[in-house]
Amino acid sequence: MIKRVGVLTSGGDAPGMNAAIRAIVLTGAAYNIDIIGFRHGFNGLLDDDYQTLLPQHVQNIIQHGGTILKSARCKALHTPEGAKQAAEALQRLQLDALVVIGGDGSFRGALAIAEHYHGQIIGVPGTIDNDVDGTDYTIGFATAIDTALDAIDKIRDTADAFERIFLVELMGRHSGYITLSAGIAGGAEQIICPEFGALQPEDLKTLIAPVQRAQLLRGKSSYIIVVAENSYPGGTTALAEALSTALGIECRACILGHIQRGGSPVGADRILATKLGAYAIEQLVLGANLMMAGEINQQAVLYPMAQTGAKKKQIDPYLVRWQQTIASD
Amino acid sequence: MIKRVGVLTSGGDAPGMNAAIRAIVLTGAAYNIDIIGFRHGFNGLLDDDYQTLLPQHVQNIIQHGGTILKSARCKALHTPEGAKQAAEALQRLQLDALVVIGGDGSFRGALAIAEHYHGQIIGVPGTIDNDVDGTDYTIGFATAIDTALDAIDKIRDTADAFERIFLVELMGRHSGYITLSAGIAGGAEQIICPEFGALQPEDLKTLIAPVQRAQLLRGKSSYIIVVAENSYPGGTTALAEALSTALGIECRACILGHIQRGGSPVGADRILATKLGAYAIEQLVLGANLMMAGEINQQAVLYPMAQTGAKKKQIDPYLVRWQQTIASD
Amino acid sequence: MIKRVGVLTSGGDAPGMNAAIRAIVLTGAAYNIDIIGFRHGFNGLLDDDYQTLLPQHVQNIIQHGGTILKSARCKALHTPEGAKQAAEALQRLQLDALVVIGGDGSFRGALAIAEHYHGQIIGVPGTIDNDVDGTDYTIGFATAIDTALDAIDKIRDTADAFERIFLVELMGRHSGYITLSAGIAGGAEQIICPEFGALQPEDLKTLIAPVQRAQLLRGKSSYIIVVAENSYPGGTTALAEALSTALGIECRACILGHIQRGGSPVGADRILATKLGAYAIEQLVLGANLMMAGEINQQAVLYPMAQTGAKKKQIDPYLVRWQQTIASD
Amino acid sequence: MIKRVGVLTSGGDAPGMNAAIRAIVLTGAAYNIDIIGFRHGFNGLLDDDYQTLLPQHVQNIIQHGGTILKSARCKALHTPEGAKQAAEALQRLQLDALVVIGGDGSFRGALAIAEHYHGQIIGVPGTIDNDVDGTDYTIGFATAIDTALDAIDKIRDTADAFERIFLVELMGRHSGYITLSAGIAGGAEQIICPEFGALQPEDLKTLIAPVQRAQLLRGKSSYIIVVAENSYPGGTTALAEALSTALGIECRACILGHIQRGGSPVGADRILATKLGAYAIEQLVLGANLMMAGEINQQAVLYPMAQTGAKKKQIDPYLVRWQQTIASD
């Protein structure tokens, strides 16, 4: 029987993590389960840095970005001793289960602990990148899109006033979810992301032709290219310079960076976080172990934690095709 | 073969309608289809109020609320003569098809026209209420949630500073989607919406008990009740007064009203609108008729226009139960 | 010599109050002054509800609406015994001075305490209404304008899509500052506020003529009238109904209400609050008593607390004239 | 007598330029003055690119960023022939006066034209940098602060969750207005701007000491340094790397860039733009020439265009001192 459950946030912070913590604490209280929050991700396990979380501790946090438990990456966990030590901390504190809110990398850490731990472990997908398998969306993704969009809309104002070309770099080293979604929603004239293949200096002409066509045929007064980070050798600034030279028009780069991780979560992230946080506790009570609480087709589901990074999640092919054949032309 | 297509926006305006118009025009251009936009909903058909829409007309509209085609309700269409006259306008203008962006009521109007019209008709669900069957979400719903949430968060600030009880009334005469979603996302202590049953003066005590419990047990410093419009005889102001009297604590009502219809659409609405607008044109080309372009499980699908209002769409029972048993307590 | 200073927030809460508290605490720390925060306004004095405020207590509060010290109105203070009791609390706690953050009403309360108190008292103007004499702007006013504007912009979207007339009611019972400022900034077609004289049913025709002229001459597709609360017998809803009847066009009322008090403070309010909070402490050290820290012509100044409500602050006559003769026509 | 007036926006675009155009057009209409808008700044004069602006052209633009007249820098104007040619265009189009909305550089261009032009010229200060003498604030400055602040608040969320040090680079090559204002409003732990002196690699230790003190003494969980562009050899990214090495803690740079120019103008900018646009027309009617319409101490005033860049505008010394001695410690 579940009496005491630990919770931590790990990896890059994401808007909605606080909403998930709140749902876990409120649901725990309803089931008479004590909730223990560890600080700084897995480091809190190794450093005995924790506190009991009561409903009054999670009042008025649903609307705040960041995480009240702090987050961190934890190198020590990557060693066998680290994982063992973390498991011992869980045993010593008599925790029947642990909830890990984070991305695929954090779930790898949890699985390493599981080898030495007798309790249950469940994951809740919290990362802006939406690159976790087993859930349609991760907590924080919807907010990151709207943050990126807000920047793209502002750049549209100035691009349009000046009739300039802008390159906007968004986060997503391995995944183009944010870039493609924000690019389509921002009405970007072109989108460059990992899923569309790497871009090399010799491919510049494929970028240039549609720019020239757009200005000739459509009289476009602004042109925005949304770019996923690490899409071009030397980065987006180098790409902007190469484009400026090739086109003879000034192209400016704008690197959005860490702004994308913060901010008050939008409704979709708060609802998803509430649902998955509550579901995680309820499934622990029902015996779930080594699973991630995800949402597929609007239904809360369990998915094996070991497979959350197994295959590459696919971006909606319909939108990809539309963007490449219609919007970019 | 589809050569000329009309498009109009009808009923209450919704953020994202412009994004849908843009996708329709861009996709039309890619298929060499002329797009004719009618103004003021179906009135544009009856009044010969229209214009050809080219890609340059839809530049930089994806980010704007409202609708460049204007919207309206159209009483004349409810008479057999009106529907016939509208169909004749479509024939006279040699339109092969009509795209109607609106809610269930607008689709009824379209079906009335269809009885006299030889071309194809397709619907695109645009309404903040999310009360259209055949699609998981309607265009405008996600933005309306975030607008409501922004207000709830602001009221939380002042409720918390003053330790007061606030009732926030949201739109949704027949459907509690906005109210339930914004209520959960706003961390509302209670939610009153049609799906939970009508509230009568004699039911006040069921509201009062949890308020008193919350203050005693949890030391809550603010208490927000989110209420769907028309949930109480005399309205939300009357409900606030009745609660004030019963509790001996000042309860304030805040009626959000038409703010919920406006604003720059959030990413989710722009993406949905882009997808369904493009899909509508592509399906017309493939022969679709009397269908609505919707999205189910992230997949664009067709759904019979005649059935979009047939059954009442159900709100996620998992969240309903969680809200009623855990969050409200 | 100043060693211990109390601080409280009183009256309607205003965005930026937290920024003022932060500046007071940080400046106090720099001067080796202990800062004691009372909760719930003057009630904290009467109920012995207080805490020492250290720099770590005010980290990351500058961006939040509401007030960490809570606010309240305090009826007990209006009796001679109440004021005396509050003064005794200050003496008993060995406070050398008290900082009161609030509006003119709160300063009246402070002056009542001063009759029985041997320490110094200084005021900091915090209210969204901007109706305090001795300062160009009060803390919270700039944010309230932008909150109102955000609503007006959203209503403009839907008014424009529907070609409707909207009345937007803003706060300001005795002062039209918010209404005039938000009306001008929102491009309102008409503005009704106390400074322009009370409106009676028989004056309706003066409102109607410009509406009709605007539609005939300028082809305006939307028409927004911004109204200060209590400007018409029966309220803004009654005014909307009277206008609908007289014009034969549907006019909708939207009552903005308490949303205007909340939200993250805008830059101008955070800077003003920081400046006045710091200045209040520094002036206490220099011996200021029964003064308010205000800002006039961008310069921090002292102003006698007894005169902050003496005369009615005048709204910029240039803008008033422009709005009445040019924008409304 | 003034019958026809030209208007253009020049230099970097700023939120509120549209509000100024609107006020100019509405005020012109009230005085029966034809308003001719030139596109792309001074280029519109040289390229005969202009249109008559009527009140219906400026409906619903007050809330939009950018400029409907487009902006540009104009190299041709820097040659004597260019200035002469521009003056001839004004004569040929029988314009009695020209309104130039822009910054100090744009006013230099206007003065060059004035040597060959028989009509009147008036300037309206529109630039986010607030580096124009003769006005307390320029149009666009208040919005740029709030855009920067929005980014700083978001970075605070993630800095706080991760306990990291962030450097946020803001615009302002020659002036620290944006950096100082946004830094104070964002609660930045340190501010680096031109007014505080250039920073060299050997000065790093002055930055490092307070960082270390803050973490030891105050237990700060996040640390934000706001930096004006061009404050360090190699840029803010190089500064972040140098700090990381020196502190042994990861420091991240975030370059805000062109986002700061866009966005819907805040209330303060819309009101200032409305006031100065209206005032510019009224003063032209009264005979003003080679003057800028500014606002000092909330009063609209004229200031010689030739002196708008004469001396360096001073940042509020009170806030500078407070930031350097109290907030940074």
Spatial order of strands in the largest sheet of chain A: 3-2-1-4-5-10-11
Main structural class of chain A: alpha/beta
The residue ranges of chain A in which pLDDT falls below 50 over 5 or more consecutive positions are none
- CATH topology name of the largest domain in chain A, in short, is Rossmann fold
Assembly type = homotetramer
Question: What can you tell me about this protein's structure?
Answer:
Chains A, B, C, D: Keywords: Allosteric enzyme, ATP-binding, Cytoplasm, Glycolysis, Kinase, Magnesium, Metal-binding, Nucleotide-binding, Transferase. The structure is a homotetramer of 329-residue chains. Helix content of chain A is 40%, strand content 18%. Chain A has ten helices and eleven strands. Chain A is α/β, with parallel strands linked by helices. In chain A, strand 1, helix 1 and strand 2 form a beta-alpha-beta unit. Chain A has two domains: 180 residues, Rossmann fold, CATH 3.40.50.450; 120 residues, Phosphofructokinase domain (Rossmann fold). Chains in contact: A-B, A-D, B-C, C-D. At the A-B interface, helix 1, helix 5, helix 6, helix 9 and helix 10 of A face helix 1, helix 5, helix 6, helix 9 and helix 10 of B.
Describe the SSE topology:
The structure is a homotetramer of 329-residue chains.
Chain A: E1 4-9, H1 17-30, E2 34-38, H2 43-46, E3 50-52, H3 80-92, E4 97-102, H4 104-114, E5 120-125, H5 141-162, E6 165-170, H6 177-185, E7 190-192, H7 204-218, E8 223-228, H8 235-247, E9 251-255, H9 267-285, E10 291-296, E11 299-304, H10 317-327
